[in-house]
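Protein Record: Sequence and Backbone Structure Tokens
======================================================
Tokens: labelled as protein backbone structure tokens, with as many entries as the chain has residues.
Task: work out the structure tokens from the sequence, keeping to the layout shown below.
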Amino acid sequence: MYDVNKIRADFPILAREVNGQPLTYLDNGASAQKPQVVIDAVTRGYAEEYSNVHRGLHYLSNLATEKYEAVRGIVARFLNAPSEDEIVFNSGTTEGINMVAYGWAAPRMAEGDEIVLTVAEHHANIVPWHFLRERQGVRLVWVEPDADGSIPADKVLAAVTERTKLIAVTQCSNVLGSIVDVKAIKAGAGDVPVLVDGSQGAVHMPVDVADLGVDFYAITGHKLYGPSGSGAIFVKRERMDEMRPFMGGGDMIREVTRETVTYNDPPMKFEAGTPGIVQTIGLGVALEYMMGVGMENIAAHEASLAKYAAERFEGLNWLNVQGKAPGKAAIFSLTVEGGAHAHDLSTILDKKGIAIRAGHHCAQPLMDHLGVPATARASFGMYNTTEEVDRLVEGLELCHRLFG
């Protein structure tokens, strides 16, 4: 049985007050809080076990290397990747997608080649492709969501042409909460590789990259209840063999002379410089924690929260929920009739101890499509409760009374 109160007890920050009110943390889509086991692992990593990894022959270096490299297997298990050698560590999804843009896409794309992506993408899955548009004349082909915020696989596939070289798509919109059937997209894409931004998807549902069949799947640690500055990307082996290094230096080399450089084997080939050692170790602990709770259990709990929140919001006829796709994640972008800006809502709710996100959520093309400058986003996580939904609704009702 899912015991949300037991889970909440594992997150020390949830016991604090903000502005004299119990903290109601609903900004998980931006960054999730950390369980005590992650905090302890990071503290221990710096206080008792810190050293640089690889190449060192002393005790602390060997210990740090062992713990750091063990995370590669944890990530592979979390994503059900066929091999841990298909996992590249990085600072998060943004770096992972940029690595693919520079290391895989740029050498393979010429003027007029196309990348298919949706209007619902986070800027991290837009800006790297704009680089290729600016520098190489690559064409970006945009797929718009349906009226309810759904992004059907067949709509994405309809945008594919003989010039399409990549499909880059989120698995879960960070604004709308819409779930995208990336497995169907990959199945229908033929030889076209598919990159998935899993920043939100991996948080809210079990992920099996072997079953999905996708070529690239990026995750970011700070949304997965792990440290900021940690992340990883799954790269299918054949795609990895086609990639050039993204950055140079450190462990990505095998030998350097005045005349030549030879590269290390993947995935080390794509991990230059001193990595985020303790952050990555913390990520491994966070993923183990999530798998211990059970991703299916987390998904079921959040689905229940999403259903309850949607029902409560339906009773507020002055509240607009942007995106009502069936089966959406527990992510709600809200606007209020009567002129109240999202920043006003966030400020008032903060006085009640309720933390939400206000702005364009790094999704300006989607804001333009929706016809709004910003939204107030409440995004739920594994530790949130129906009582916190009620607190949010009470706060929104206060906002409505204040702004009329």
The domain at 39-292 is CATH 3.40.640.10 (Aspartate Aminotransferase; domain 2). The longest strand covers residues 164-170. The mean pLDDT is 97. The chain has 15 helices and 17 strands.
